[in-house]
Design goal:
Helix content: 25-40%
Distance between the termini: 17 Å
Strand content: 25-35%
Structural class: alpha+beta
CATH topology of the largest domain: D-amino Acid Aminotransferase, Chain A, domain 1
Number of domains: 3
Length: 330
């Protein structure tokens, strides 16, 4: 029986959501009946198993309370820091431990909104107009005010945060620089984007039976006066709804979404899975908004819903990804 270690938790804003996702992944792995599953919590820069601190030894085994486990494969069910930032992947690569999901480099590039934008531009994939505020200086603040003067309606975002943390909608010039100051509290860089009036569409991209699959899009449907914040995503009182069968999409837009999703997955050298988020705008057309290298796996998350709606099995997906990771490391 193979031993699969699930990393979960983390010290970022998405700690609790990671725990919910980890429970979903664990349930699907145990359903196969062929794995021993060890769920390891990352918290306060430590590994914990059953509330006891653990560590990895020189042989790449995970040890806790005088017990060591040979780890056949790791699933880093970590949203945001330190999973989607690439830190855990780099750690596992140093130890030569197989894991599923995107490599450390592509994880880091996709988590940072600046590098994501630069890659998308290099790949000729449309995305929203933006300005990079690289430092909290007078010169860079002028970059921000000039960008606002051009578009008048913008989002100020911390460059390296997930789930809309450090993200602010600005429509009044007097609010711009205070929001830039706030965003710098979460990240060493800030990005400002033109507000796009849009429908929000998402695609699951993953490897299945040896082929890259990009699903038909699902849609996040929000009231016009609501921004899709962390609380709006996960609150029981959320006014947002989701669907895996959006209405009224043109065939030409569906073709572009599929093309851009595939080009982004391949161009950014993603692996195994990602959720690629789009804006569909009457004025600006189809734009990629962001790429999630380990998307949510909660019961309400779009990635597993879209995969299953496409006709594939999430349980079989995990099995195939684990088998590939072990084979590649051999």
């Amino acid at each position: 029986m193979q031993t699969i270690l699930i990393f979960c938790g983390g010290d970022g804003s998405e700690h609790e959501i990671s725990l919910t996702s980890a429970a979903f992944v664990e349930k699907n792995l145990l359903a196969l009946g062929t794995y021993q599953v060890i769920k390891v919590l990352i918290h306060n820069h430590q590994f914990f198993y059953q509330d006891q601190p653990g560590y990895f030894n020189a042989q790449g085994q995970f040890c806790c309370a005088e017990q060591c486990f040979k780890v056949d494969c790791v699933i880093p069910v970590l949203h945001g820091i330190p999973g989607e930032t690439g830190d855990i992947q780099a750690f596992l690569e140093l130890l030569h431990i197989p894991y599923i999901g995107c490599r450390s480099e592509s994880s880091r590039y996709c988590f940072n909104k600046v590098t994501t934008k630069l890659y998308l531009n290099a790949l000729s994939i449309p995305n929203s107009p933006f300005a990079i505020i690289s430092a909290n200086t007078q010169e860079q603040r002028k970059v921000a005010t000039d960008f606002f003067a051009k578009y008048q309606d913008v989002y100020v975002k911390s460059a390296s945060q997930g789930s809309s943390i450090g993200c602010y909608h600005v429509k009044d010039a007097k609010d711009l620089l205070p929001r830039v100051e706030e965003a710098f509290k979460y990240s060493a860089e800030v990005i400002i984007e033109k507000n796009i009036i849009h429908r929000e569409l998402e695609v699951a991209a993953y490897t299945y039976n040896g082929e890259l699959v990009t699903t038909s899009p699902g849609e996040i449907i929000m009231p016009s006066n609501v921004f899709y914040t962390f609380d709006e995503k996960y609150s029981q009182n959320s006014s947002t709804t989701t669907t895996v069968e959006p209405k009224g999409l043109k065939e030409s837009d569906l073709k572009l979404i599929n093309d851009y999703a595939r080009r982004a997955f391949l161009g950014l050298k993603l692996r195994d899975l990602s959720r690629i988020d789009f804006f569909l705008s009457e004025e600006d057309g189809v734009l990629i908004n962001e790429i999630n290298t380990f998307p949510g796996m909660t019961p309400i998350s779009m990635f597993p819903k879209m995969l299953e709606h496409h006709g594939d099995s999430i349980t079989e997906f995990f099995k195939q990804a684990i088998d590939r990771a072990i084979e590649e490391q051999a």
